[in-house]
Amino acid sequence: MKTAVAILALAAAALAQNFADLRPSPQQVAWQDLEIGVLIHFGPNTFMDREWGDGTADPKVFDPKQLDAEQWARAAKAAGARYLIMVAKHHDGFCLWPSRHTAYSVKSSPWRGGKGDLVREVELAARKHGLQFGVYLSPWDRHEPSYKDNQAYDRYYRNQMRELVTRYGELTEWWLDGAGSEGHVYDFDSYVDELRTYQPNTLIFADVGFLKYGDIRWVGNESGYASETNWNVIDRRGYLRYRPAEADTPLRKDHWFWHPGAEARLKSLPELIDTYHRTVGRGAQLVLGLAPDDRGLIPDVDVKRLEEFGAAIAKIYAKPAAPMLAGPGQINLPRPVAIDRAVLSERLEHGQRVAEYRIDVQAVNGQWTTVARGTTIGHKKIDLFPRITATAVRLEILRSFGDPQIREFSLYDAP
Length: 415
What we know:
This protein is of the alpha/beta class. It is 27% helix and 27% strand.
């Protein structure tokens, strides 16, 4: 019995050491600092009041008369986004660039006289407005005839991937969406090789089924929240991997594509602020789904809401209410300060280490009160608590894998 306990203790110690030693790539660290992105859905579905097209839509339905990719980029920027992912091909198989490998694309539409390239327009607009750029290319294709032949479709997908990774500059993220792919066998190893050949620094987003191939994992829902305990390091079939979470959620509830008369589904400002705190504030990335309408413009009400959201977050976190502390310890305030939230972050280049912490506040009467107690910190942890006037604040790390490496401990008071 003692031997078994000793073996288990050694195994746990080894796991903890491996956990602490596992480091993200420089690309993963830089990506986590982006914090907010947008994912844009636009295509035949936009003109047919659909979420999932079946691949039979006539390309002639795609004819946005007022399309303005810069308006999309400005709206994303106003929301505080730092990167933009364009859905180049959704499950219907319609390509928003003039692919050489299919006629089912913008080149068969009346838009821009069949000479347009929407991926190019969005990429240029994103970079002009200071946004990094990424691409979503659906593996599931409900139009392409070769989809019935695994090997033939693998060639088709790689060919389209090669077009996208060689024509549109440096890509921050490549989206692998597993929807609809049940029962189909893809040669993902060859897809990854193709991507890495031309874009070695691009991070791959992969949902649950494709986790082996990803650098970023799906948070597990489209409701806009991460778990309170959110480890970047996950155990996948006995192997530890550094896979930070991305939480994607549409700006209009349940609608990734635009639908007429659906303005009531637009999320409220309080809902978006809550989403921010339950994603970015729990160490995950927030990706908001934006849906241009059949004019080719993001609706005015959506743009206004994005502007309100970006301005609100910027105002709340514009300036700490008290000096920041780079590490655990105590902040003695020069004067009593009202605070209602704390922001923590770790130096993730050293790995994610903190497993439990506590924040205590000393009130003006000298009494100490615990205002927050949590588990993981990771890239960012935001703790909200009832407003209190403090004379001192302390952060205590209660449990960690290795020495904690705290990058930020700051205090705020929401206006």
